[in-house]
Design brief:
single chain; about 290 residues; mainly alpha; 12 helices; about 0% strand; globular
């Protein structure tokens, strides 16, 4: 169950990453640009010794993933700084729906599974709806129309990047391609951030500050770990959307962390329990 352990690890590290900017409250553009530069440096030594893929589609997908990450991370960081880490993750259910349906359309193996074992698909769908409902109940005040509008680009870009990445990162070549893929993703993100410098938000602020260095360092390490687990999970999951559903546990981990640290959090513990039960039901469909 490599996909499941990787998806669970992805959800836990995502909680850590989402909470970083609640603490440091940095502008999303600056944080994303600087942490992408640091992350690219982290992957550079491995890239030097890794074989580069011969699949011509690999490189445009990596570039697209990097540009998508620039947009989605900036949106998420700004929302986390203004509200909380949980708000930055509200796109996950809707992205998951798009990924689930799209993967059924393009993957013959997924369609055969749907036909041969429809009960598993039905259980997975029910589990997904339960988890989405529980997520909404955990903190109803997190959701507003203004926030939803800001999340629309993140919803579609995250779904498209997930599907395209899964297509060019099959399990057979996954581990040898991860360093190159993430190096291109983070480098693209950093270069795009530098290119946007003349049009940066809040130009009156200095580009660097002490907290930006701290937040970017933590985000670079956390993002590298998180993306590695994500790539493993979507490569081996029966449907990449299952990883999105497991990622719905992230608000539950955030709630536990806030409780342990004494950070004010009005999330409903019962809804958190429902999230966990929904995830357990989902897991049963992959055995």
């Amino acid at each position: 169950m490599l996909w499941l352990t990787s998806a669970l690890a992805h959800s836990i590290v995502t909680a850590h990453n989402a909470d970083i900017n609640r603490r440091y409250k940095q502008d999303g553009y600056r944080l994303n640009t600087f942490r992408s530069f640091l992350a690219a440096l982290l992957w550079l030594p491995m890239v030097i010794i890794s074989p580069w893929p011969t699949n011509i589609y690999f490189y445009p997908v990596a570039l697209f993933a990097g540009l998508s990450m620039m947009v989605t991370f900036t949106i998420g960081s700004n929302l986390a700084a203004k509200h909380n880490g949980r708000v930055a993750l509200l796109h996950v259910p809707l992205s998951g729906v798009i990924v689930f349906i799209t993967w059924l359309l393009i993957s013959e193996k997924a369609r055969l599974h749907f036909i041969e074992q429809p009960e598993d698909v039905i259980i997975a769908l029910i589990a997904g709806f339960i988890m989405v409902f529980a997520l909404a109940k955990m903190r109803r005040h997190d959701v507003s129309w203004a926030i939803f509008v800001q999340l629309i680009p993140k919803i579609f870009l995250a779904a498209a990047a997930t599907i395209l990445t899964r297509l060019v990162m099959p399990p057979e070549t996954l581990f040898q391609n991860v360093p190159v893929f993430l190096f291109i993703v983070f480098t693209t993100c950093a270069v795009a951030g530098v290119a946007m410098y003349p049009w940066r938000p809040k130009p009156e602020k200095p580009f660097f500050n002490k907290n930006l260095v701290k937040a970017s360092s933590l985000s670079a390490i956390g993002g590298s770990i998180n993306h590695t687990f994500f790539l493993i999970a979507i490569a081996y999951a029966p449907n990449p959307a299952y990883v999105n559903l497991i990622a719905l546990l992230t608000p539950f981990w955030l709630m536990l962390y806030h409780k342990a640290r004494g950070i004010p959090d009005n999330a409903d513990p019962f809804s958190g329990l429902i999230l966990v039960l929904g995830a357990m039901a989902l897991v049963t469909t992959s055995f």
